[in-house]
Amino acid sequence: MLLALYTCLLWLSTSGLWIVQAEDLDTDVNTRSHHRGLAPTNVDFAFSLYKHLVASAPNKNIFISPVSISMTLAMLSLGTCGHTQTQLLQGLGFNLTEISEAEIHQGFQHLQHLLRESDTSLEMILGNALFLDSSLELLESFSADIKHYYESEALAADFQDWARASRQINEYIKNKTQGKIEDLFSDLDSPAILILVNYIFFKGTWAQPFDPESTREKNFHVNKTTTVKVPMMFQSSTIKYLRDLLLPCQVVQLDYVGNGTVFFILPDEGKMDTVIASLSRDTIQRWSQSLTRGLVDLYLPKVSISGAYDLGGVLADMGIADLFSDRANFSGITPEAQLKVSKVVHEAVLELDEKGVKAAASTGVTLNLVSEPLTISFHQPFLVLIFDHFTWSSLFLGKVVNPA
């Protein structure tokens, strides 16, 4: 499974502050306590954001990287002050009477370290950079904080020559992601005076790969009146699955080599909204504890999905409204300009294919009673939830309505 995505967080104002997050989607006891303290809050925010997005576009594909959105907004909070900062951190789900601002950033610092370095079997490229116009006075405290907590570096760019600056940023991101992310900006984009870039590329390898020779074109029922042809992957193997007795759905869990875990959820026809409304930490925990292992004939669409989401309205609905108003206080970034957020855009791409590890072989003889395999076919709209199971970070959440 190849996950490639990028996210854009965008400021447009008379002062021209513009933040972009680019993505082409892992110690000691103290470190673990920091990142695990974030996990419940981040997952709750992930499902809340996901449900708001699904409600705003009920008949469309959805695919987002919640943990990277949380990380970028937390990093942004280092440049906010007063009520703007409090509202932003509370909007991310943090109870500031129980966790300090410093502990939040320490948690993200350790989480980023774990996601980047603890699992060598997943291909993970994660980093940050700050591009600023030579005319902007950047506060040293902000520069030092983003370097310390988020390993972000500050680079000069001439935003008066936007064509040249955009090429510089595109080349930087292309080099950092080994060519996985290209042409994030175009000459037609509006110039700015400060751009904060966060990039992440993730590529996972199935622990049990699909055989490309078994992929066949099949019908996918988008709704009662629309059917499309899609390449349907197939494997017959022993996997974890569940027919949920509380919710109208079937669940399949597939693992990557390493820390990646994927839940594929197939709601009964007409029951998508019921299942989405019930998504929570408790539901995921119940599924994890209730899954059984058995022989399954599994059919899964080979899909590539892309989409763009303006998160401004959604974030405002979730209580993060100051960023988009004249009340915004970004005096932690620069003393020179009155800034506010006018747009938050998230763009993502999902590619789901057969790729897995090369098989190893050994020879032996066993006799066993084999029952008929259960057939589970994802031939109608389904959900995909991707976690790093070491940190329990919600790497990606998706809803596939039409894989074509």
How would you describe what is shown here?
- The two termini are 17 Å apart.
- The chain is built from nine helices and 16 strands.
- The protein has helices spanning 29-56, 66-77, 82-91, 101-117, 140-150, 162-176, 272-277, 281-290, 312-317; strands spanning 2-10, 17-21, 62-64, 123-133, 152-157, 194-203, 216-221, 227-243, 249-255, 260-267, 292-301, 303-310, 343-352, 374-377, 382-388, 393-400.
- Strands 3, 7, 8, 9, 10, 11, 14, 15 and 16 form a nine-stranded mixed β-sheet that branches.
- The chain is globular, with a radius of gyration of 22 Å.
- The longest helix has 28 residues, at 29-56.
- α1 crosses α4 (101-117).
- 28% of the residues lie in helices and 32% in strands.
- The chain is an alpha+beta fold and 404 residues long.
- A hairpin with a 5-residue loop joins β7 (216-221) and β8.
- Belongs to the serpin family.
- Residues 47-403 form the Serpin domain.
- This is Corticosteroid-binding globulin.
- Residues 1-22 form the signal peptide.
- Keywords: Signal.
Question: Roughly how many Å is the radius of gyration?
Answer: 22 Å
State which percent range the strand residues make up. 25-35%
Mean of pLDDT: 80
Query: Number of DSSP strands?
Result: 16
Structural class: alpha+beta
Largest sheet data: 9 strands, mixed
Q: Percent of residues in helical segments?
A: 25-40%
The H-and-E topology, N to C, reads as EEHEHHHEHEHEEEEEHHEEHEEEE
- So how many helices? 9
Question: What topology does this entry show?
Answer:
Elements: E1 2-10, E2 17-21, H1 29-56, E3 62-64, H2 66-77, H3 82-91, H4 101-117, E4 123-133, H5 140-150, E5 152-157, H6 162-176, E6 194-203, E7 216-221, E8 227-243, E9 249-255, E10 260-267, H7 272-277, H8 281-290, E11 292-301, E12 303-310, H9 312-317, E13 343-352, E14 374-377, E15 382-388, E16 393-400
Parallel strand pairs: 2-6, 4-5, 11-14
Antiparallel strand pairs: 1-6, 1-13, 3-16, 4-6, 7-8, 8-9, 8-11, 9-10, 10-15, 12-13, 15-16
Pfam families: Serpin
Signal peptide: 1-22
Protein name: Corticosteroid-binding globulin
